[in-house]
């Protein structure tokens, strides 16, 4: 859980800086959308190989070696001199991000299965606390008008030794028979994993959109400045964290399907409020509801995909991540292109159908019976 908390802190401090980078590079909404494609492009490029890497060297070793690389990459996009370099640096960051996040999810699934309690939602709750903390730090950088490159670089350097010792403390796992088995020929993803991935699609698209556009939305539609611009994502991430800490207990009482649908209805209502809000306070309230609503979706999907049993858990989680994170690829540019034509409110409204699709597909999270 500490590893989950540490991973997104430096990355979270970058998110409030997006509006500042947009202003410095004089990018319009569509140009910013294209540049932001770099992160999901790097994630999608690496995920097929990340699944094989984690399967070969293990999730613990992936984290030990992947953390320093990822933290070294985080400060680079803030220093980008133009749109193309911003795209490329974000793509490089996406490659590091996909590897370390897959390692975290596979490690959490192994520990959960070997223990007696459900921990996946709480692990992701600590991740949300980490990105909320990072976003708050980034908003503080804006208020203090510090150099974002130096500030994020120092933050990354401080996190490196802590992350290394935390990952070294993770338990050693024996290599499973599945990991030692000869690799079979390539197979298409099963209908079950495709359906679970489409369930997550609307959720991750919403998360990515809030991460990339909340500060821009507040700055350009409501004329916020300084820390107020970055607080939208802080509020969102805080409620994601709250939802995930409560998620394991709620899952035991309600079941995965009912819990997912209730939360997604919160998200749908919150997004509607953000789109029509006449005042900044209502945007914050809407983002809080969206955060609570999307909080448990990905952790529930990770557990469901790892439980399918049709292939190694690392491969199924990699497939889930690959398809689900396509939402990060589609969401930000879609919002940017629509915003270029009809404004940011209309751009954010394009997320509503994807959340409805997630509600309809939530039944796929129902636990499979052991054969």
Radius of gyration: 19 Å
Number of helices: 19
What is the total tally of β strands?
0
Q: What is the structural class?
A: mainly alpha
DSSP helix fraction: over 70%
**What gap, in angstroms, lies between the N and C termini?**
31 Å
The proportion of strand residues reads: under 5%
- Overall spatial form: globular
Low-confidence stretches: 175-186
Write down the overall mean pLDDT.
Answer: 85
The biggest sheet amounts to: none
Q: Helix and strand string, N-terminal first?
A: HHHHHHHHHHHHHHHHHHH
Give the key terms:
371 residues, mainly alpha, 0% strand, globular
What features would you describe in this structure?
The chain is an all-alpha fold and 371 residues long. The chain has helices at 2-6, 9-14, 18-25, 29-36, 38-57, 59-73, 83-114, 120-144, 148-168, 177-180, 191-221, 227-254, 256-276, 280-294, 297-306, 313-324, 326-342, 344-349, 352-361. Helix 4 crosses helix 7 (83-114). Residues 175-186 have low confidence and may be disordered.
């Amino acid at each position: 859980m500490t590893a989950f908390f540490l991973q997104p802190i430096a990355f979270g401090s970058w998110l409030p800086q997006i509006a500042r980078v947009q202003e410095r590079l004089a990018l319009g909404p569509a140009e910013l959308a294209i540049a932001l494609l770099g992160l999901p492009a790097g994630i999608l490029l690496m995920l097929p190989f990340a699944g094989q890497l984690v399967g070969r060297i293990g999730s613990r070793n992936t984290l030990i070696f992947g953390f320093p690389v990822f933290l070294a990459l985080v400060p680079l996009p803030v220093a980008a001199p133009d749109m193309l370099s911003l795209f490329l640096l974000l793509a490089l960051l996406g490659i590091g991000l996909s590897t370390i996040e897959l390692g975290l999810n596979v490690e959490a699934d192994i520990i959960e299965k070997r223990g007696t309690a459900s921990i996946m939602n709480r692990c992701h709750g600590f991740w949300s606390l980490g990105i909320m903390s990072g976003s708050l730090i980034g908003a503080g950088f804006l208020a203090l008008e510090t150099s974002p490159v130096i500030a994020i670089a120092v933050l990354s350097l401080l996190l490196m030794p802590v992350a290394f010792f935390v990952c070294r403390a993770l338990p050693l796992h024996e290599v499973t028979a599945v990991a030692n088995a000869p690799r079979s020929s390539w197979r298409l993803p099963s209908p079950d994993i495709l359906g679970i991935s489409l369930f997550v699609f609307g959720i991750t698209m919403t998360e990515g959109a809030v991460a990339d556009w909340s500060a821009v939305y507040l700055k350009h539609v409501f004329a916020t400045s300084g820390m107020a611009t970055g607080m939208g994502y802080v509020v969102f991430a805080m409620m994601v964290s709250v939802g995930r800490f409560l998620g394991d207990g709620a899952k035991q009482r309600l079941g995965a399907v009912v819990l997912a649908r209730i939360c997604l209805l919160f998200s749908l209502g919150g997004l509607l409020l953000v789109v029509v809000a006449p005042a900044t306070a209502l945007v914050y309230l809407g983002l809080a509801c969206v955060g609570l609503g999307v909080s448990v979706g990905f952790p529930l999907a990770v557990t469901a995909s790892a439980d399918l049993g049709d292939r190694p858990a690392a491969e199924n989680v990699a497939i889930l991540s690959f398809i689900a994170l396509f939402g990060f690829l589609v969401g930000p540019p879609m919002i940017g292109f629509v915003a270029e034509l009809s404004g940011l409110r209309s751009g954010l409204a394009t997320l509503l159908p994807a959340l409805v699709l997630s509600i309809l597909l939530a039944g796929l999270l129902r636990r499979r019976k052991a054969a």
